[in-house]
């Protein structure tokens, strides 16, 4: 059996008007074409749905049962079509994003505020996690896309450059390096250094740019806010990307731009190849 919504709507038009001429007109069909459509429907379902005389059209018992089922079916079809139109117009739906905490805390809020104002019916989910968990969430289908510092280009994932990020030295304003212009790595050697953990993209970029020497940590922490607090207390200096500087803007701290070969972080938009956005 292969019923069409055209047949079902024609059936309801006749069930409501009880008149072939009026039902055909409301369905924008000629009466012979409309009558053929109803006959084909009855052939398809295998029962007579209407009792017909020259003056009277009435639903059979089977027709009454079929009418109730048809209304439920068409209500669901109409609701599904309306929902798809709403999704296409971005009136309803859900967007799930995974991105680096540094982006989530400072850059994202204004973006989401503007988006929410334009599309209040769209649900939002944000996971502020490090690069590898970001990519894992996309791979598992838990996020529609990620903004991560790892170029995850695989058979299942694609990565497009989203932005680039310069690095800066952060230190107390009273520190000798605070007035230096683009100090070189050797000028920082021996300074007490506050490192982020090795799982962070910031640490990985810094280690790669300063290999094989690097900087010996006096402390190694997980959060940028902790780095800022330690530097502010004079426990050491650190090097962080521009996207994280909101944590370090303080009268007590100096921010010195660095231009070292290889010290530039790239942020990628990562998504699955087999899914559209």
Structure description:
This protein has 277 residues and is α/β, with parallel strands linked by helices. Helix content is 40%, strand content 24%. The strands form 3 sheets. Strands 3, 4, 5, 6, 9, 10 and 11 form a 7-stranded mixed beta sheet that branches. The chain has a two-stranded antiparallel sheet with strand order 1-2. A two-stranded parallel ribbon has the order 7-8. The mean pLDDT is 90. The protein starts with a helix and ends in a 5-residue tail after the last strand. It has helices at 5-17, 20-26, 31-45, 61-88, 101-106, 108-118, 131-139, 185-188, 201-210, 224-232; strands at 50-52, 57-59, 93-99, 122-128, 145-148, 157-172, 193-196, 217-221, 238-241, 253-257, 264-272. The chain is rod-shaped. It has 3 domains: 5-88, Winged helix-like DNA-binding domain superfamily/Winged helix DNA-binding domain (Arc Repressor Mutant, subunit A), CATH 1.10.10; 93-161 and 267-272, 3-Layer(aba) Sandwich (D-Maltodextrin-Binding Protein, domain 2), CATH 3.40.190.10; 166-265, Periplasmic binding protein-like II (D-Maltodextrin-Binding Protein, domain 2, 3-Layer(aba) Sandwich). A hairpin with a 4-residue loop joins strand 1 and strand 2. It has 10 helices and 11 strands.
């Amino acid at each position: 059996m292969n019923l069409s919504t055209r047949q079902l709507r024609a059936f309801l038009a006749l069930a409501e008007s009880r008149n072939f001429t009026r039902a055909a007109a409301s369905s924008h069909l000629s009466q012979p074409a409309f009558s053929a459509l109803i006959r084909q429907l009855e052939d398809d379902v295998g029962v007579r749905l209407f009792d017909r005389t020259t003056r009277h059209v009435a639903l059979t018992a089977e027709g009454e049962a079929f009418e109730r089922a048809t209304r439920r079916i068409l209500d669901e079809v109409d609701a599904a079509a309306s929902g798809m139109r709403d999704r296409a117009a971005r009136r309803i739906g859900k967007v799930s994003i995974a991105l680096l905490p540094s982006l989530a805390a400072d850059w994202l809020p204004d973006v989401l505020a503007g988006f929410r104002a334009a599309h209040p019916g769209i649900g939002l989910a944000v996971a502020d996690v490090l690069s590898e968990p970001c990519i894992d969430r996309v791979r598992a289908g838990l996020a529609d896309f990620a903004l991560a510092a790892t170029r995850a280009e695989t058979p299942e994932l694609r990565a497009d450059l989203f932005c680039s990020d310069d690095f800066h030295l952060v230190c107390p304003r009273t520190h000798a390096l605070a007035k230096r212009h683009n100090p070189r790595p050797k000028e920082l050697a021996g300074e007490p250094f506050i490192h982020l953990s090795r799982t962070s993209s910031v640490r990985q970029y810094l280690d790669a740019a300063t290999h094989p020497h690097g900087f010996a940590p006096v402390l190694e922490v997980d959060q940028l806010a902790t780095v800022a607090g330690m530097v502010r207390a004079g426990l050491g200096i650190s090097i962080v990307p521009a996207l994280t500087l909101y944590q370090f803007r303080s009268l007590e701290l100096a921010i010195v731009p660095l231009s070292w070969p290889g010290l530039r972080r790239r942020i990628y938009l990562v998504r699955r190849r087999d899914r559209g956005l």
